[in-house]
Every structure is written in structure tokens, then in C-alpha cells.
Amino acid sequence: MVRRSGGSGFDTTVETSQTAREVASFGTATILTGIVSMVALVFSGLSLYETVLKQANLHLYVPDTIAYTRDPNGSFEVIVVPVTVANSGARDGVVSALKLQVKNQETGRTRDFSASFVAAPGYFSIKEDYAKGQSRPKSAFAPLNIAGRSAFTGTILFYPKDYSKDRVVPGASKFSMTLTATMDAVQDMGAIDRFWSTDIEPVNFTANLPIVSRFFDGQMISGWSVRLFVENESAN
Predict the structure, then answer these.
(1) Does the pTM of the predicted model rise above 0.85?
(2) Distance (Å, rounded) from C-alpha 80 to C-alpha 43?
């Protein structure tokens, strides 16, 4: 039986059904709109984090060839390592120190080196000769500011803290090396930055000096350099 309102002949059952469908449709549209808005908000938050808020995340890289020489001004052993420091974070990070630990696999002797200078262009085209007042171009190592989403590449000269007659590289051998870096992250956001901050993973590798001249010591004292070939590079 169809119910009618008064004498107008208007079907209230049909009206109620249509209203229910409209309400249901409106509710579904509202839910979908809310979901889309929430997803957009999440992506906006992720974008803000990745492009503005993400703390510096630094990584170290070394090539497959490094060098060894001695500084005639004191006869210090010098390990020459081209280094790339890449920042995958959005904010700046400062590398305040670079350290290199070297262990001779044959003698077991270990020595710690620190980044002391950065080689300038032409470093390998000139031989150190203090008698002639000739020295390789280099500048003092200073903390490296690595901007977000950028990288630094430079040839770092690692010197020991003091002179020793017991050379860690007396001649041909294999050497276990560990490159570490100290990072000072931006702390603009206080405790949040300290919570998000990450350390730079050290890089472990083996450097091989396969063959040297029988005049090796004399060549090194005279300011020559030799190549070492990197093997088994890995990050901890």
C-alpha cells in the first residue's frame, strides 16, 4: 500500500528513499574527500621533512687508488686520500675532523693519522725539494661545511701526530685502513635535532703497495710518491 500526504498525491516513501540515498552519497563523498586530504597532508609532511627538516646524513667514499709520500720537512709519513663526503640530508652538516688508522698487515704496526692539509691543483706535478725552496701546493685542512643535498670532493693529506722512525709503510706490503669522520650537525631544533642526528659510518679498506724500488727510502725522503691500490672497501 502506498502512503500519500494529504490529498496532494505526493509519495512520501519515494521521497524518503531518495533522501537516504543522497545522505549516503554525501557521506561517502565526505569520507573520500577526507582520505584524499589526509594522504595529501602526509605527502606534504614527508616533502617538508625531506626538503627542509631532514638532518644531515653524511657518507664517506674513497677511490680505488690512493698515494703514500713523505714530507721532507720533518720526514713525516703522509697518506694521500681523495675523499668524497656526500650529504643525503636536507640540512647542512659540518665535518670537523677526518682520521685514518693504518695497520701494516705484515709487521702489525699501527699508526693514527689526521687530516692536516688539502692538496691544491698541481700537487702531484711537483716534487718536494726544500733545498730548492720548492714545495707541493697545499692548504691547511679546515672543517668542511657540507650543504644539504650536496657533496665535497678533495684530496686530503693525512699526517701522523708526531714523527717516528718506525715507519708504518717501510716498503711493499698490504695495509688495513679505517677512515672515520667527526660530524657536527646543525642543532637549530634542539632536542629534536639531537634525536634525529646520525653518525658517519667509517669506511674500512685494504690498500696494497705491491712493488717498490730498492731506492724506496731515498725516493720518499726526496719527496717522491707511490700509488697504493684499494681493495675490499666497505662501510660498517
Answers:
(1) no
(2) 44
